[in-house]
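I have been asked to look over a protein record a colleague put together. Alongside the sequence sits a line of tokens, each denoting a local backbone shape. Please read both lines and tell me whether the tokens look consistent with the sequence. I do not need a full report, just your reasoning and any doubts. I have pasted the whole thing underneath without changing anything.
>
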Amino acid sequence: MERIYLDHNATTALDPEVLEAMLPFLRSGFGNASSAHADGRQARAAVDEARSQVAELIGAQPREIVFTSGGTEADNHALRGVLELARVPEGGTPHLIVSAVEHPAVLAVAQHLEKQGVRVTYVAVDPQARVDPDAVRAALTDETVLVSVMLANNEVGTIQPVQEIAAIARARGILVHTDAVQAAGRLPVDVQELGVDLLSISGHKIYGPKGIGALYIRRGTRIAPLLHGGHQERRRRGGTENVPGIVGMGVACRLARERLATIPDRERELRDRLEAGIRQQVPHVRFNGHPTERLPNTLNLGFNFVEGEALLMNLDFEGIAISTGSACSSGDLEPSHVLMAMQIPVEEAHGSLRFSLGKETTSEQIDRTIAAVVRVVERVRALSPMYADFKRQQAAQETQAHAR
């Protein structure tokens, strides 16, 4: 039976149109985009076109786009590049603000910068994983250099009030970065409306190739290069351009922009069908995230009395690919830092699954997934000592109730 892939927040398949656009630059059009001859000029023209396509997706100017190796590098460049040139009052300590539910590509950089002497504030979120703009306002100081809050969470899909946060920070002359890796292509993203100074996106989340991403840097923003070397990317990122990857990302951005009018609504409808089907047929299920302000393709559910890893493996045997959290931390046995920040009990966090739909997901696949989840949860709970204890306690309470 055909496998069902519901892990699009981890990565997406390469779109056939993207592949076709890349192939010429993997074959005959292999010139270095920095070379002056005809082959180099052909590559440069392709890079310039892709830069415009990326810029159009997010409402930026082409020269404000820096190509990177992916979302992680873009996040690293934003935080480390800004902090390296930070200007604070004499005797002060540069201050960075991030949310507690950021992707590891931001949190790990923040922790690294702390070791370098930067003061970092990790702003808490509410039980729906949402940041309160007033909490960011309260954390600002005269030494705050940068605020970094993701546009949409990769695990539970919650959309953050980045526009409001950016307005608060920029009113005090503080730069704002947002990781829009999960949001781009699934939500309308416009850097002018958001009011951010830096924004990260990644190719493989929008049906483009892996190993390519981009960082939007608002014109006039002071930022040091992350990689030093040649003059590429206006001296903001040294190194020979990954022309096939850049071309692929450009086409992926163009397609994402064209599909925004239809695909997200279709994914939302199927996601709601999946959620309703599971919650109607499986008892003791917890919804994780914001009920309305969330990505249209993302559903995170907690299944009591079982381990999420056991559910994941059993569903994999059934031919269904899902996740227990972000792919970047899938080897970590600790509960999700996102769910912990949402104040979800550890045992419930361990039983959570993330379903993330894509443009090829069908209603038939959703129905098959619902049926498989019902079977798997019942099978795994039958082996769970926690569930057995719960059933005994429930039976005892019912007996006492009848005795009264």
Observations:
- The chain is about 45% helix and 15% strand.
- The two ends are 53 Å apart (CA to CA).
- The chain has a mean pLDDT of 94.
